[in-house]
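re: that chain from earlier
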Amino acid sequence: MAKPSSTDGRTRSFVQIFIVVGLCCFFYILGAWQRSGFGKGDSIALEITKSQADCNIGSNLSFDSHHGGDVGKIDEFESKPREFKPCDARYTDYTPCQEQKRAMTFPRENMIYRERHCPPEKEKLHCLIPAPKGYVTPFPWPKSRDYVPYANAPYKSLTVEKAIQNWIQYEGDVFRFPGGGTQFPQGADKYIDQIASVIPIKNGTVRTALDTGCGVASWGAYLWSRNVITMSFAPRDNHEAQVQFALERGAPAIIGVLGSIKMPYPSGAFDMAHCSRCLIPWGANDGMYMMEVDRVLRPGGYWILSGPPINWRVYYKAWQRTKEDLEEEQNKIEEIAKLLCWKKVSEKAETAIWQKTTDSESCRSRQDDSRVKFCDITDVDDVWYKKMEGCITPNPKVTSGDLKPFPERLYAIPPRIASGSVPGVSVEKYQEDKKKWKKHVNAYKKINSVLDSGRYRNIMDMNAGLGSFAAAIQSPKLWVMNVVPTIADKNTLGVVYERGLIGIYHDWCEAFSTYPRTYDLIHAHGLFSLYKDKCNAEDILLEMDRILRPEGAVIFRDEVDTLINVKKIIGGMRWDTKLVDHEDGPLVPEKILIAVKQYWVTDGNTTSTQ
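^ sequence. v structure.
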């Protein structure tokens, strides 16, 4: 290939500027004209249209000039992309791995039927999940915490079933969330105030929380203003759409259950775990569920149990259960907590709080109890589809200084890195990763000017690595679900949590545990290179389409040949795309593909584009 001339370089630089300016305009107008919960466009859109009249200058992106004849050859001979048709309207809220009909074929024991049961290859849908008629973009945070458009999740059952508990109210064309819950009908803020009188929430030492059986996630939604980020989960059951409501509100949540499989989180991930009338039988199976909570709690972390059987002597009549039944249940919980070396630090009204010891090995070595059984495992974070066991997961000794308070924790050296627990990731490599992703995110902001404006609340990083993308984009306006693929070279999810972020293990050959239309922005770095020859790229892209909101955006970062293949598939998916160079210039083989999902909705058994 001939050596490029200085004129070629100037031409490429001009083209890059030309493209970036066009993309900035493209996203700026998109942000104003979104089908938002506060109306399909507003007065600001008119002003933007006037001031950005020439914003379509980058609408036709040519990639050929950057890669000689190679890309041209691919484009010249490639066939027309396969067009993906809309799914039938009945699939509007389809959750492939928690599909109700399939779930009912599995055992009820230990909630197995509510766990993940993904469809076999022959039953997978190869179509686009439609949005319901009248769908609008959710309100911006923090208004979204309190209001959800009715059309987005048109299910009124909880307004009746949970009326006296103040979960949710239907008001015209919106649902209102007063902040109540089964154990806190007067509001989550007052309930959290009571907890904060025992647990040091204010000083940043408690940053990550787990809410088991979360309902509509009001506890986690209200903790956000106190700089605590909560991973909430609940099953897809007769409480229709509770997790969907949580995500529409802008609260992190997944469909999940404590059943027979370990939770998809690393050991020692959470500073605090919570159950408010979550109906989990904590004393059953020899304490297996409490042992699983112990596994994901950090040494020194807290467990909050609110509701039956706490203080049963006072409340047994209101709970309509016998004294004997409640006393037996509480005794079992107390016994298991003792085996786990948890110390009860508070019991007031219907709420009890235990704290996990920071020196569990020393405590358990003093115990003379045959019931203390330790798990015989070499990798405590190998949890994907692994059976839960009635044993205690060993924790290393830690000191209170191992983790910094948040937000200092976000940028400090995580203990797993400092101790060399992640093979191949030194302190130096961690620092380089932070610096690299700060640079990448700055480049993204130049391409998409509304990236950190509040336009995108629910963000997913499909291949999160050390969590540096989430750290670089950190803002009170947004949160990131950091996904570490189960086939990734390095298990880094523990590092993500040590930075005060949240995430989950997942295999992208399967559907994610969420409802359709629950993420505003998806980031996929190296994902399709990672999954090459592992599963069908079409399946991954259709799953991305399922979980992405209409007018939501995707940022792909990968090798050019991989992105050309991805772009071809997307050509049949009702997405608009732009392919741009790496921020360091056209000679870098890694490129960026920006995509925006078009707005279209179902109309009975058909679909319409608006």
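The two ends are 47 Å apart (CA to CA).
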